[in-house]
Amino acid sequence: MNGAFRSALFGSAVLRSVIAAGAIVLSLANVANAKEAQEIVKAGSLGGFVGDDKIFTGKVKVTKLFNDAPYRPFGGGLVEFERGARSAWHTHPAGQTLIVTKGVIITGTEQGDVQIAREGDTILCPPNLKHWHGATDKQSGAHIALTGVKAGNNVNWLEKVSDEEYKTALKKAK
Fold this sequence. Notes:
This protein is of the alpha+beta class. The chain has 2 domains: 3-35; 48-173, Sandwich (Jelly Rolls), CATH 2.60.120.10. The chain has 3 helices and 12 strands, in the order ααββββββββββββα. The protein has helices at 3-10, 13-35, 163-173, and strands at 48-50, 56-57, 60-66, 74-81, 86-87, 90-91, 96-109, 114-118, 122-125, 131-134, 141-148, 156-157. Strands 1, 3, 4, 7, 8, 9, 10 and 11 form an 8-stranded antiparallel sheet that branches. The chain has a two-stranded antiparallel ribbon with strand order 2-5. The protein has a two-stranded antiparallel ribbon with strand order 6-12.
């Protein structure tokens, strides 16, 4: 490249603008990547709560593990049920996955399906399926819940599971 051509090319206002715009785009890309860098959520840093008796029966503890994010459309939590404890009926607009980490979890659907999941098992719940889950009357249980978020919502709580529904489910599950 001769000197006059190089001077004309790199000295032009148009090229300087293109180079400046490119530099800005690259720097913004680096900022965006920095915001989505790998992170560690320290155990207990998001807190937890005792299950509200409006949506749980029995003693339940929920520990938040991580929240949803633009690149991860689901949140996670550890849910621990003492013997006999259970959730109310509910649905999830974007579905839910439960990974049983301890003991036994019983789950039932509006259609009358009742299943038992044990430590290491995974329960896959499709969007909008009316269901409940909890421990059995003889054994406590815990699961990690990975719950999808749709339009800012992850769960729709409904009526509580009655003692009669729970007893029937226990008999059916055996």
